[in-house]
Automatic annotation (TrEMBL):
<dbReference type="Pfam" id="PF00225">
    <property type="entry name" value="Kinesin"/>
</dbReference>
<dbReference type="GO" id="GO:0090307">
    <property type="term" value="P:mitotic spindle assembly"/>
</dbReference>
<dbReference type="GO" id="GO:0008017">
    <property type="term" value="F:microtubule binding"/>
</dbReference>
<keyword id="KW-0175">Coiled coil</keyword>
<feature type="repeat" description="ARM">
    <location>
        <begin position="663"/>
        <end position="705"/>
    </location>
</feature>
<feature type="compositionally biased region" description="Low complexity">
    <location>
        <begin position="43"/>
        <end position="54"/>
    </location>
</feature>
<dbReference type="GO" id="GO:0008574">
    <property type="term" value="F:plus-end-directed microtubule motor activity"/>
</dbReference>
<keyword id="KW-0067">ATP-binding</keyword>
<feature type="region of interest" description="Disordered">
    <location>
        <begin position="1"/>
        <end position="67"/>
    </location>
</feature>
<dbReference type="Pfam" id="PF00514">
    <property type="entry name" value="Arm"/>
</dbReference>
<keyword id="KW-0206">Cytoskeleton</keyword>
<dbReference type="InterPro" id="IPR019821">
    <property type="entry name" value="Kinesin_motor_CS"/>
</dbReference>
<feature type="coiled-coil region">
    <location>
        <begin position="431"/>
        <end position="495"/>
    </location>
</feature>
<keyword id="KW-0677">Repeat</keyword>
<comment type="similarity">
    <text>Belongs to the TRAFAC class myosin-kinesin ATPase superfamily. Kinesin family. Ungrouped subfamily.</text>
</comment>
<dbReference type="InterPro" id="IPR036961">
    <property type="entry name" value="Kinesin_motor_dom_sf"/>
</dbReference>
<keyword id="KW-0547">Nucleotide-binding</keyword>
Amino acid sequence: MASGGVSYRNGSALKSSMKSSSPSFNSTPKTSLKSRASAAANPSYGGLRRSSSGSLGGGGRDDTGVPGRVRVAVRLRPRNAEESVADADFADCVELQPELKRLKLRRNNWDSETYEFDEVLTEFASQKRVYEVVAKPVVESVLEGYNGTVMAYGQTGTGKTFTLGRLGEEDTAARGIMVRSMEDILADISPETDSLSVSYLQLYMETVQDLLAPENDNISILEDPKTGDVSVPGATLVDIRDQQSFVELLRVGEAHRFAANTKLNTESSRSHAILMVHVKRSIKGKHDRELPLPNENGNASLLVKSFKPPIVRKSKLVVVDLAGSERIDKSGSEGHTLEEAKSINLSLSALGKCINALAENSAHVPVRDSKLTRLLRDSFGGTARTSLVITIGPSPRHRGETASTIMFGQRAMKVENMVKIKEEFDYKSLCRRLDIQLDKLIAENERQQKSFDDEVERLRADAEIRIAEAESNYAKALENERLKYQRDYMESIKKLEEQWLMNQKVRGGDKKVGTRDEFLDKTCSQEGSKPSSSEEIAEVKQLLQNEIDLRQSAEEEVVNLKSQVVQWKKLEAAGNVEIFNLRKLLEDEAGQKVKLEEEISILRSQLLQLSFEADETRRGLDGVGPGKAFTGLDSLMSQVRHLQLKDSENGQKASVAKLFEQVGLHKILSLLESEDADVRIHAVKVVANLAAEEANQEKIVEAGGLSSLLMLLRSSEDETIRRVAAGAIANLAMNESNQELIMAQGGISLLSITAADAEDPQTLRMVAGAIANLCGNDKLQTKLRGEGGIKALLGMVRSGHPDVLAQVARGIANFAKCESRASSQGTKTRRSFLIEDGALPWIVQNANNEASPIRRHIELALCHLAQHEVNAKDMICGGALWELVRISQDCSREDIRTLAQRTLTSSPTFQSEMRRLRIEC
């Protein structure tokens, strides 16, 4: 894409370059991390002091949280193939002391500077141990609702990308912090209630680019003016459901990241990679709230229950793989690669300035000098829990870059964050629930209204049908009665006419009967008295009355139905009132939320004031003398732990005067006999730290500390106590006056027994260091050898650990030097104890050891042994002559080379053998 050798990481080229350039960390961790609860409760993780001047970039905030210092771990990369060849004759510029959490940076073979960190990881530390020490506490805090940051800083080629971004597809043990963090997060969250999303970005040439969508190459950074939170809304946000999809996402992002071939690394990152993991978790509320709603009668009805808004915790994990800090002349950058290097160095320089300002409590923090510092505003001096791992190399050629990296870590340890949980009410979720409930009520009301309308319509249609049937039946009945009466009438008329004609014929024409009409009227009047016709009329009237009653009842039923319609309309109006009340309640909830936020702001400011007052009270209590502030064993142990905790926070040990003033050495030594193993461990660590200072050693011995340490070494079965006690004895053994006391109290026998029983390399290194210090005393050589000190020293070579072998070689060199001094004074009359105890074969075998500390001490031991003529024949038979010749010609140190030449020249036996073998020196 760009000139200057820049390329994308993709395909097989990525894998091959990673194999050739990444360091190999292949040892397994010796300790495992405690559970999340104990890790979160561990006081050494977070500081006890209040936060500095706001977040990265100043800007005070109203809310408060838990103070927590930036944690810094240092990781040493082993020598690569190029350094093994180029630096074969030079010692490493770095010496690690992981049990003391110290690092020594050598200026030369005699002078060095000591630094302390929260964790010191050797070149043998595994990826799992690095994750558990550096990132796991941060991941657990993110799962509890805090923001967290894990960042790697160091020179190009020291293993930052290997530590953070290694996928580990071929070897699962090589997985980096990104992959292991996602495994823990996915194992803890619930897919039903929680959400997890990821963004993957790179900061290249002061431009934020999306590694998941390369076309999105100019993303803006936004800051919330109220909370100060930094976000990149233009970045691609991908929901994560399983580990495989996350690994595939990392592979895609890594393929789009800029890289180039430089002198320091064949696959050097040319951009800062930033992985953002957003976690959203729902927390069930403690109480439910009932909202009474009035019904049509004015009484309260609990139609809506449990409308307390749910609590949501939003947290963010940021993993930052910074591009390497490097010198332009060493990296060989030119052209476009040179411009990239300048941009990288400018952004890292801006980050360093911000950290310096925070560490010094400066009023102004230049956060806007770079987009990198804007993105990391919450990580340094903000509200996130931050862990920093600095990576360094062992080569003395890069001592300047290593020193710069170490100082960056030291300054970062002084930065304090005020971590706080990201917890809020989910009013959106509550609103959605109320909307759903409201929709259900409206739908139910509509269904009831429709059912009511259908029922009214059915009753009206039924009434109309019944009325029509009644009217039809009534009309038919009337017509039938009319026709019946008409037929009866015509039949009656016909009968009367026939009767009249018959009467006419019977009576003849003489007697006048009357007219026909008169006869019919008379007949009708006679028949009118018959009851049959009147009863039929009454029956018809009764039927008519019944039909009238039916009609009236139908009309009454219609009236009742109309009244029911009116009542349903009233119910509908009451439902509308309830809906209106619900909406009003929602508005009241919004107003209460605003009031609660104002009250929370006031309470936070009050809490801040109370915290300041508590700090003043605590500082006043710290000034109380011993015996007033602490009484009893429990109080004493609390103070010792408190002092150790202060040491870990401040990055340096408390002064001896302050320690003695507050606790007292005799009280600390009394804790070494405590029945509580945890108390003994803390106490022996305090004594070991004090013994490391030469000014304290005489006081410890006078107070009986040496006897207590030897007692612990004799009686304790705890590996940690034995290791730390041996280290304290080794520190005391550096003083010549203490060496005789150690020997007089059987110290060499105890150290020999411990060396035979121990398997831990660090314990063996401490024991070997103590014996090596004792080997340097001329007066104690015979007694030391008689009590098995030389055999114990040689027995520890079984470990094979480089640190143990270096101490063994140092002890042999000290012993040989004392024998050589005795020989020069004319008191040496017999061959060396080292040769008699069988040390010569091991000395010859390791005379050309790859590790420079081992090789340097063995070369000195050979030169000192050769100065005594009685040892010459044994050395010739054991092959030591050839090594002496090699040392005199090829040794990298001039003083050792000169000593070997002088020894070979002054020994008649060696000269005779060299002439016989025709060796020129």
